Amino acid sequence: MAFGLPAHQPEMQAPVCPRHPDRPSYVRCQRCGRPACPECQRSAAVGMQCVECVAESNAAVRSPRTAFGGTVREGKTVVTFSLMAACVVVFLGQFAIPSLERELLYAGVYTGSEPWRMLTATFLHSTGFLMHIAFNMYALYAIGQTLEPMLGRLRFLVLYLVSGFGGSVAVLLLEDPRVGVVGASGAVFGLFGALLVVMKARGGNYMPILILIGINLVLGFLPGVNISWQAHLGGLVTGAAVSAVFAYAPRGPRRAVVQWSGVALIVAVLLFLTWWGWQLVPGKLFDAV
Fold it and tell me: Which residues belong to any copy of the Peptidase S54 rhomboid domain (predicted)?
């Protein structure tokens, strides 16, 4: 008895890559079993995985965190060097553009019309006293090497900017509104305050930084010294408050929420004080703007 073959035998289709359907692939992912073309193949500990499975694995791995909840970063303190570079560039710009300092400095009378000066002034420095920028940049560098890795880049940047803002708020409340101020001292003193809080929270020896803060605060009150103690004091208190939120927020999955909510509350208080301080500026000075 003879048996014939079917007239039309269906052809076996080659497996294709899901991401590239025009590419046959006989290599399958060790994790999901789907075909993967050479472009979509990634080496794994055992065999090969597709790009989707590798992405899912990476997403499931939590990024290492610093002691205060920031993301651990390898390499240089990018934010510290970026802030230093910004201050130096603006400082050189003050020589190239004589009106730059006048356009960016802060005085209480500018609060209502040009409030951004409360931050831009922190990137200016006295062109007639080079030690002004030299001291601030050295302090920023020295403290930044410690605080930025401990807090993480974003928290360190927020600490610096909010401290600078806090210094300007203190100038508005405690200084003659016609007196202009420049310098990163408010923000730098915020870093001093933050370092003091961090060292205390970690059980370290905070007395040296406490003595350094005391000496620098006293210098601002000496007669003939043209230093804005108001900015120093405001930055110091603000920086200590922000770092306390970062350092003492309870550990757990909601730690970041608590930290950023605390920072938002501090900013809200500073904004209220700004509004209140602006109401105290005598109306006759508005014409000076």
Answer: 114-247
